Amino acid sequence: MATKRDFCRLKRTDGLTIMVLDQILIDWAHLSILTLAIGFLLHEVGMLSLGHAGLLLTGAYCWALWARGDLSLVSALSAAAVFLLLMALTSLRVQDDIFAVVTLALAEALRFFVLGAYELTGGSVGLGPVPRSDWVASSHGAQLLALVTGTVVVSVAVLLLARWPGVVLGSIRDGELLSQGIGINTGLTRFMAFALTGVVAEVVGGLQVAYFGVATPQMGELDVSLQSVAAAMLAWPMWRQGRPGRSAIGFLLGAGAITIAPPLLRQLIREGVDVAVLRQALFGALLFGLVHPRSPFSRLLERS
Amino acid sequence: MIPSIVDGVIASSAVVCLALAYGITYGMLGVMDLTLSARFASAAFASWWVAQTFYASKNPVFAPAVWIGAIGGATILTVLLWMAMAPLTRRAPLVVLIGSLGLVTMTEAGFQAVFGTTAKVFTGYPTETGVFFMGTTATPLQLTAAGYAILAVLLTAIVLANTGFGDKLHAIAEDPEVARCVFGLNVAKLTRQAILFTALLIGPAGMLYAVSHGATAVTGHNFGLIAFISTIVAGRRRPLAAAGIALVLTVLGTVFTRWNMAEWIAFTTVTCSVVIMAHQLIQRRKLTVRARAALYGTALVGGIVLAEALANFALRTLPEGGQSYHIPSAYQPLFPYLVIGVALLWRPKGIFADSKERMV
What we know:
The structure holds 2 protein chains of 2 kinds.
Chain A: H1 4-9, H2 15-45, H3 52-67, H4 73-91, H5 96-116, H6 118-121, H7 134-137, H8 139-161, H9 164-174, H10 176-181, H11 186-212, H12 222-234, H13 244-268, H14 275-291, H15 296-303
Helix pairs in contact in A: 2-8, 2-11, 2-12, 2-13, 3-4, 3-5, 3-11, 4-11, 8-11, 12-13, 12-14, 14-15
Chain B: H1 2-11, H2 13-28, H3 36-54, H4 64-85, H5 93-115, E1 131-133, E2 136-138, H6 140-162, H7 164-174, H8 176-181, H9 187-213, H10 221-234, H11 239-256, H12 261-284, H13 289-317, H14 320-324, H15 334-346
Antiparallel strand pairs in B: 1-2
């Protein structure tokens, strides 16, 4: 069994290791951007969405169809907008915990649609290979694209949340009836928040297709949303009302912890244990521990 | 047309039992616990273990120990999961939701570690010949499962309507604080009893499902979400309506890819018109929930019978292409979600929710 020291000894001179590290970095970047979307929606507006993976899937397929020449740019953007609008209009009819479940159901519906429309989407095999330039398909290109996207998302978040829109969102989160009483259109504001974060999720889907060169239904599974939710919850100690920059750092760190855990486990436990099962169990334990009142995680979050 | 519907009714037994359980845990107790599908899987594995250990060459449906094993498996996991979940229920519903998702993930990993990823098949289950039933063919096992689902619905209806336990549950569902402070009910104890009652409901359903489909770590997950959404679509405090919605969704999912164009045209024009007319009638009069459910059910059945007659007529008049066109079967899982989307857009508080009720 490999030890921690073995893992630390790995040098970048090993070609395979460089590839693995690059892959981790790209996964981290993509998860971070998705976590920014889900995290801001959760902490700033108080809406837990389990359906952003479905929007990610929509973005991925729209990008793939456009890149393959099956759809024009306007048609692809329109299709992405229509799916986002459908999800927003349906899920925003309900609130709180029901909203989370409805978004999850709609994401599943999108995934089933992708699986069913095999003539358009390739079914369970996916849509690929997607033609793209070598630079976009390279690790450095993907990292730079993710960095630029992340910077834009954080900049927009800082511009919006550090000013009055952040206060408006906070008032809706803390008391919707009160905010309605002072003249805030809560329905429209919630719709705008959901739509903005949905666009970010769709962009992440596009980035993933640009790098991997294939769009698959697995991109829209519940696990993708759960990872982002877990990262956003890990970032809770860093969150402050009106301090989006600080929150963004928290989301980056949370996403980093979620991304690094599986390869670290693979390095530490190489034999004897089915690592995929162990990873799944640990992820479940983390998710449960984050909300259980007696767990160290939860106590840490409450103390902070 | 009607044989397809009968097929759907027969296939819906497991999802109906799960919807009943969700209707009690979420609909009545307000606990957003998504671990019911994991308990369903535990019943499947427990019954498989009992059957393979003691009755390897016997039909498991006729072995009482297998039924007891299924209920025991579901009950043990229910107790364990509830011990973990109970502290969360004092917090916000979102906390319960995330915690239960974490528990589902852990339980699934646990099942995979213990039983592996391949489906566990009941070797003692014999090859059965189908029984001709209302225009379709069903195996005795399918009929047993459908019979059990009917029994579960009747049992739940009797318990909720005619027992003191049911009255107390209704009181908790209306307002837990009032139930505790005014009526002096022990809410925690009653909640535990209700959760155990759901284990009794889904245990045999898990066993009957596993006998035909095999037991895997994700048994129950595929239709667990449909069952839960049925509870939301039905409205709070309506476990029987949740079971009804689950039944309708499964039937519509079954017929979605089986019906040809003539049958769909007949269904959408006649059946939907009759149901909408019944809805208009119901809206104008102040009726009880039971009367509304009965009227909706009657309208649906009457509409289907009328649609069958129209479809038979249309089959003779439609061009060949229209008769033979079927929606591709790959879209089958999508249909219940489409119905759910439409239902939520129509009545976000739930179809059977009171007009003044604010569910969400």
